[in-house]
Fold:
Amino acid sequence: MASASSEPTVRTLVDEAPQDAVRRAVETLVADATAEDGVAPLSEQGRLDVHRDHGVTHLVAEAGGRTVGYAQLVDDAAELAVAPAARRRGVGGALLDAVLATDPAARVWAHGELPAARALATSRGLQVVRELFLLARPLPPEGDPLPQATLPDGLRARPFEPGRDEDEWLRVNAAAFAHHAEQGRMTREDLDERTAQDWFDPAGLVLVVPDDDPGTVVASHWTKVHPAGELGDEPVGEVYVVGVDPVHQGRGLGRPVTLLGLHHLAHDPRHPGLRDVVLYVDGDNAAALKVYRSLGFSTRGTDRMWARTADVAGDTMGA
Structure:
């Protein structure tokens, strides 16, 4: 633990991954912060990017010979975490100042509605430029029954097939999320990294394809199950990515494609008895919010992105 008199210093690593010992320390402080706050300080992509040595600027705060904070900057988006034992000692301020010195136009995520995060952002004159809602609903039998997922004529659902569908899924994902900074830039490396995780289940990545052209993806719903302790005391399902090829948008696919994934989670043989499902959606995505709320989702939390100007266009979802 850093002593109260230790002033934090910040090391900046550009296209250079932290050394193993520092990386392990960062993983520990992220876990400790998650347990303390009830919300992870880094997104899933942020946690994966801790290991990357290209395309990421890593900022490591140290005091008393220990790693007490961490931030990362990818393009112009930043996230930061401070060890609970080192809070209220200027670590968060030092990290945020270093991020803004590196990129004055940086947009900084604050996950959850934590008063300390708001206070830090406003102390640097930052304003909210984007909101990401966490929505949730109980699955049957605790929650309301799910409507049937009825696709338009000529379309059917099938599971993702590893080794066959990667490139086609990436094509549709890039098109559906062309204006979404995080999701739309997913590469084959990113996809392979996720499909190699223990949580990945090909049956949980539901593809919608034409009856007469099953190799072409029209839309998809990728589901995920978080283990107990990650989002609560029990496993929790997630509407991970819902995307519709823009060529097929306007056909009312968002609702049935969402339902396909919800039905999978409700009857997932790998995770029987799931009680809850969550999803993230941009606060300005009225169309997606309308679909999700019509399916019984309500707001459980909010992530906010802060920057020095409010004149930043909001992103849109691809559902």
User: Anything to note?
Assistant: The two ends are 45 Å apart (CA to CA). The chain has a mean pLDDT of 92. Residues 20-37 form the longest helix (18 residues). The helical segments are 20-37, 44-49, 91-102, 115-123, 166-176, 188-195, 254-266, 286-294.
